[in-house]
Structure formats: C-alpha cells, structure tokens
C-alpha cells in the first residue's frame, strides 16, 4: 500500500488530470435502441469514458472503500481511510460517489451477516456481494447504487411507489452468475427511480413497498440470460440488466462525469435485507456512511481549493501603490482573508475526523484496543455509549460542513481573480471552478440542510430516546471543552431553550440549532487541540475561532496590533508554523 505522502503526490500527477479532463469532456451516454441485430430485446448500454474507468479502477486498487473493512487499524480505521479518501476526492472526477455507496453497502451487508436472520442461501449471496465490494482487484471489485428517490416524494421516502412482490423462480432458472453459482432473489421489484446516481454500479440497495411496508432490498444490476445471443457467430448466454431500463441520464449543473439516471424497474430480482417493513431503519446504516463520506468530499474539494490558493499566493505579484509591487503573501488584507478561511477549514477538519474517530469506535466496540493518547482520551466517549453521539454527529457534520464549503470554495475562486473563474481543463490542477460546481450538490444529496436539521431535532426531542441523546451530546461538549466556561455557558443556554420548547414550536429554528451545536463542538475541539498542542499557531487559531464565533467578547476591529505582527501571524496560520518569509522585496519590507 502506498504511504499517504505518496498518495498525496500521485493524485496531482498529469496522468490523473488527463483522466479527469477526459471524464469531463467525454460524458456518459446511452447507446443502443433496445434491440440487437436479430430483433431480440436487449438492454441499452451505458457508455463511460476511458478516463472515468481508469480513475474508478484506481479507486479499487487504492482501497478507498475496502480499507474500511481490513484489519490492522482498529478504532482508527475510519480516520485513516477517510484521510486517504480526502486526498483523492478532488482528483476522482466523482468516481468517489459510487465508492461511497459501495462503502455503505459493505457495512450494511457486514451487519446482516453478523446477525442470525439470513438463511444459508442468503448468507451465500450476501457474502459473495461483500467480497466483491471489499475487493481491491478492479476485475472483481463492485460499486453500489443507493436507489431511494422517486418523483412523488424526493427525500420523503414514505411516498415510495416501487413495489416488491415475493415470487420465487423455479430452481435452475434464477441464476445471477453461473460461474459463482449465485441465484437471483425471490422478490420481483417494479417501479421508477427518479434520481439514481452511479447507474454503472454492479449492485444496488433500494427501497420498495411490500405488504408489511417500506423494505430494503439488495439486487445485482445484471443477470445471466442463457437465451441471449452474444455474437453473430451464435455464442449463447451472456448477461443483461436485471429488470432495469435506463430511461434517460440526468443533465446536472456539476458532477457531469457521474452517470445519474432515471430508471424503470420491471421485474428486477432482489433479496430482502433486514426485516420486512423496516426499510428506513435498515438503510440508515448506509446513510450514516454516505453522509460522512459526502462531507469528506466537501472537505477534499475545499482542501484542494485552499492548496491551489496558497501556491498562487506565493507567486502572484500585484501593485501596491506608488509603483511598488508585492506578492500576495505580503498583502495584509489578502493574508487576513486566507487566514480566516483556513481557520474555518481547520475547525471543520477537527469535527470531520472526530466524527470519523467515533464511527471507528462504534464499529470496533467489540475489540480490545490499546488506550488512546491522553489528548485523544479526553474527547473519547465511553465505549458503551458511542452510538447516540454518532447519531447526533452525522447530521451536524454533513449539513454544516457541506454547506459552509460552498462559499469558502467560491472565496478560493475569487481570491485568484479571473484565473479562478476559468475552467482550466488545460491546467487541471488549477481548476477550482470544477470543484465549486461539483461541491454545490454535496449539501443536497444524502439529505438537504433542512432535512438534516429536522432530523437532528427529531433525535434530540424524541419522546423515548431524546433524553439519552441530549445527555450524550452534553458529555461530548463537556469532554471537548474541558471546562471552558465561555463554551459551556453557550451550550447550557441552548440546552435549556431546547428542553423548554416542544418540537413543533422549535421547528423553524432547527437550522439555528444545528449551526449552534456544530460551532460549539468545533470550539470545544479547538480548545482540546490548543491544550494538547501549545504552539503559537494552534493557540492563535483557537483564540480567533472563539472570537469570531462570539464565544468571547473581543473583536478583531478592537485589536491594537502592529501590522507586521498581524501579517506574520496570518502567514503562519495559512502556511504553517515552519513558514519562512520569502526574500524578495515587498512594500512592507521597504518601510521597515
């Protein structure tokens, strides 16, 4: 396995950006009229670019999904996996999207196999799918779809019109893959999925109604058809789509290389996953992972945008009045802007990887682990009560960070002037415009900001489990804040307001609640980091975050600080503590 440093270098290589450009310029399309040369009905073919396929195969090889299910890292597995994914996101041309659903499907099937519900045949089917999902071999690896959205309901899956009927096929006539001896499922599924990302996936997890209510199903995308003519020479038997017809591909503002489609299902064969009638509860396992990974995508885009801006800042020369010329890193206002953006990014990174750590604790709760370092132990929840905090962190993380990354990425474009606005396909490593339009979807799919805000409120105000959730959140904030009164007082005020207000009356403030909790958690994590890392840069970022988010009364406008000191401080925030002031003359140095 490549080290993370090598991966960080590889994702910036020209051949990677050549693949991204190919995927952006040669968009997916549907080929075929629905019949072959012999007049037989056949599935229309989804055509993908060579660049997309190359990047997807690279994703398998690097294990951007598989690593989450490999041994060796224990409770830190998700942190390491998602840090590697973060490096990859901005170079992936959105092949990371089906891999996020692949990750979620693998976790769902892993949990199913750990229970006693599956029959021996179902175990064989689920285990086969799980092995494909967790393979690093591009020839065996599978991605997964996640089909929930329909025209009638959008995010409201209770309005699902897709119907699943239990009607087993005769033995011997229901093979998905004769080479592996995997049978097709006994459920026949028919309906219409209005927005299905990753239409090129190998399998899907979808929702459909049964007599007992909304249920979750696993279905392969292809099935064996022994009567289908494969070539003009008469070879018999090949694969066809498993009761799926691609009605059309979606024309989107961004994420254009990603084949998102409208799908007609007619007799798609699948297997029930989980308990019949409890589809929402079953598929929530996938949503936890795909929401966290959507956030990883946003942070990966923003991290790349800031990296581009930092590099630009070092070389861009601008006028400074009276014939003087300076580079942007000597421009006091420009560096103030970039340092503010960097602190916002840093806070969201703290929240992102804290949440990833909690996810790893939950998934490895039954394994003995070595005690974490003291700084980490301070923010580690009790193992027996990890799930409630994760249930809170997931909607907070996904809604807050994906939303905040959009204006911050726009600010990255703006900071480069006209160069930032260009679609730099010839110099793909500079293309912030592509990252911006792709990032705009991230706070929409897997739950919009309002949907997740209401979800959070529902968790905290639930008549049975709401008290336990509030206690779990209180513990998280206490651990992170370490007794910092300016944080705890703000949290106590918010908690008292939530406890005194019924859910219906609090609905219009759900976004405000989520934002407040996100920033309280980040403030606590900043304080925890500042205690563990007493270097000047960390202390400065913590101080300024608390000030900007009004945890402390001080204002930047009231700070009486020497301009050279402020500039140096901002340069250190943006470029790191080991940053050295470059040697060329600047306006400031000429006045010293």
TrEMBL record:
Classification via Gene3D superfamilies: 2.40.110.20, Butyryl-CoA Dehydrogenase, subunit A, domain 3
Keywords of this entry: FAD, Flavoprotein
Record-linked Pfam families: Acyl-CoA_dh_1 (PF00441)
Origin superkingdom: Eukaryota
Annotated ranges, domain Acyl-CoA dehydrogenase/oxidase C-terminal: 277-453
Family per similarity comment: Belongs to the acyl-CoA dehydrogenase family.
UniProt protein name: Acyl-CoA dehydrogenase family member 11
Source organism of this protein record: Apiospora phragmitis
């Amino acid at each position: 396995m490549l080290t993370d440093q090598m991966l960080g270098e590889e994702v910036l290589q020209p051949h990677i950006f050549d693949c991204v450009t190919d995927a952006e310029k040669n968009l997916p399309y549907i080929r075929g009229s629905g019949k072959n040369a012999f007049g037989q009905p056949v599935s229309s073919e989804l055509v993908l670019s060579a660049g997309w396929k190359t990047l997807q195969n690279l994703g398998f090889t690097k294990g951007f999904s598989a690593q989450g299910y490999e041994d060796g890292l224990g409770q830190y597995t998700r942190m390491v996996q998602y840090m590697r994914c973060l490096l990859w996101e901005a170079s992936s041309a959105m092949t990371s999207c089906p891999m996020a659903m692949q990750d979620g499907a693998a976790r769902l099937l892993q949990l199913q196999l750990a229970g006693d519900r599956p029959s021996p045949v179902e175990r064989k089917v689920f285990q086969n799918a799980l092995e494909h999902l967790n393979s690093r071999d591009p020839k065996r690896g599978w991605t997964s779809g996640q089909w929930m959205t329909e025209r009638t309901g959008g995010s409201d899956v209770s309005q699902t019109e897709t119907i699943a009927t239990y009607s087993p096929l005769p033995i011997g006539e229901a093979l998905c893959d004769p080479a592996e001896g995997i049978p097709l499922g006994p459920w026949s599924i028919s309906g219409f999925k209005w927005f299905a990302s990753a239409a090129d996936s190998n399998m899907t997890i979808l929702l459909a109604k049964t007599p007992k209510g909304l249920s979750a199903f696993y279905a392969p995308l292809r099935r064996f058809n022994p009567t289908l003519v494969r070539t003009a020479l008469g070879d018999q038997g090949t694969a066809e789509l498993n009761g799926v017809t691609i009605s059309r591909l979606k024309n989107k503002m961004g994420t254009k290389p990603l084949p998102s489609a409208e799908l007609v299902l007619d007799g798609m064969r699948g297997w029930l996953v989980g308990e019949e009638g409890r589809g929402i509860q079953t598929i929530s396992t996938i949503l936890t992972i795909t929401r966290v990974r959507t956030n990883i995508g946003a942070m990966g885009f923003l991290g790349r945008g800031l990296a581009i801006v930092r590099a630009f800042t070092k070389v861009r020369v601008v006028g400074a009045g009276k014939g003087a010329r300076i580079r942007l890193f000597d421009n006091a206002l420009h560096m103030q802007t970039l340092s503010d953006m960097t602190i916002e990014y840093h806070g969201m990174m703290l929240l992102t990887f804290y949440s990833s750590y909690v996810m790893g604790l939950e998934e490895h709760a039954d394994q003995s682990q070595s005690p974490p370092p003291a700084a980490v132990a301070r923010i580690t929840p009790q193992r027996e009560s990890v799930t409630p905090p994760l249930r809170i962190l997931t909607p907070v993380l996904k809604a807050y960070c994906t939303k905040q990354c959009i204006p911050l990425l726009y600010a990255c474009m703006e900071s480069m002037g006209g160069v930032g606005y260009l679609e730099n396909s010839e110099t793909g490593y500079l293309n912030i415009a592509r990252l911006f339009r792709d990032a705009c979807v991230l706070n929409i799919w897997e739950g919009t900001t309002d949907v997740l805000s209401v979800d959070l409120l529902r968790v905290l105000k639930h008549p049975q489990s709401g008290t336990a959730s509030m206690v779990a959140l209180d513990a998280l904030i206490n651990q992170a804040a370490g007794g910092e009164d300016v944080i705890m007082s703000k949290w106590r005020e918010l908690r008292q307001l939530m406890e005194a207000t019924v859910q219906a009356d609090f609905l219009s403030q759900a976004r405000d609640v989520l934002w407040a909790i996100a920033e309280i958690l980040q403030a606590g994590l900043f304080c925890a980091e500042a205690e563990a890392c007493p270097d000047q840069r960390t202390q400065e970022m913590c101080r300024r975050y608390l000030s900007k988010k009004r945890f402390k009364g001080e204002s930047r406008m009231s700070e009486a600080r020497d301009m050279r000191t402020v500039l140096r401080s901002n340069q250190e925030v943006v470029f790191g503590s080991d940053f050295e002031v470059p040697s060329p003359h600047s306006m400031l140095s000429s006045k010293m």
